[in-house]
Amino acid sequence: MPTSRTTAKTASTTRKPTRKSNTAEQMSNSKFHELFMEELKDIYWAEKALVKALPKMQKAATSEELKTAVGDHLEQTKTHVSRLEDIFDMMGKRAVGKKCEAMEGLIAEAQQGVEDTEEDTMVRDACIIIAAQKVEHYEISAYGSLRTLANVMGHSDAADLLEQTLEEEKHADSLLTEIAESTVNEEAAAE
Ligand SMILES: [Fe+2]
Ligand SMILES: [Fe+2]
Hints:
Elements: H1 2-60, H2 64-90, H3 101-116, H4 122-152, H5 156-190
Helix pairs in contact: 1-2, 1-3, 1-4, 2-5, 3-4, 4-5
One fe (ii) ion binds at residues 47, 77, 80, 139, 165, 169.
C-alpha cells in the first residue's frame, strides 16, 4: 500500500543518516587524532631544537636581565619537552619528532641576527628579543591549537598539560616585552 510504503521509506531514511553520521564522526575523530599526533611531533621537534639553540642565545646576550630570562626559559623548555613526552605516553605512542621547518627558520634567523650585530650592544639584545618573541608566538599558536584539539577529542589530561605550557609561553612572551621596553629606555637615557 502506498501509505505504509511511504511510512517505511520515511522510517528507513530517518534511520540511515543517524548510522552514517556515527561512522562519519568516528572517521573524523580518527582524522583529528592523526592531525593531533602530527602537530605533536612538530612541536616536539621544535622544543628539542630550542633546548639546543637557547644556550647560544643566552651566551650571545648582553644584559644580565636577558641572559637570566633566556636561561630561565631554557629550563622551562626542558619541562615542555618532558610534558610532550608524557602526552605521547598518554596516547600510547613513542615520542618522535618531525622536523618543524618554521622553527628551523626562526632559529636560523636568530643566529643570523646575532652574527649581524656587535657583541656587548643593546642592539644585539633587541635582535635576540625580536627573534625570541617570534619563537614564542609560534609556540603560543601551536599549543593553543593542540589544546583545542585535545579538548575536542576529550583528552582532558593532555589538554591540561598543553594549557600549562601555553601559559608559560605567554608569560615568557610578556617578560620579553618588559625587557625590550627597559632595554630601549636604558639606551635612550644613555644617549
Ligand atoms: Fe616551549
Ligand atoms: Fe618558549
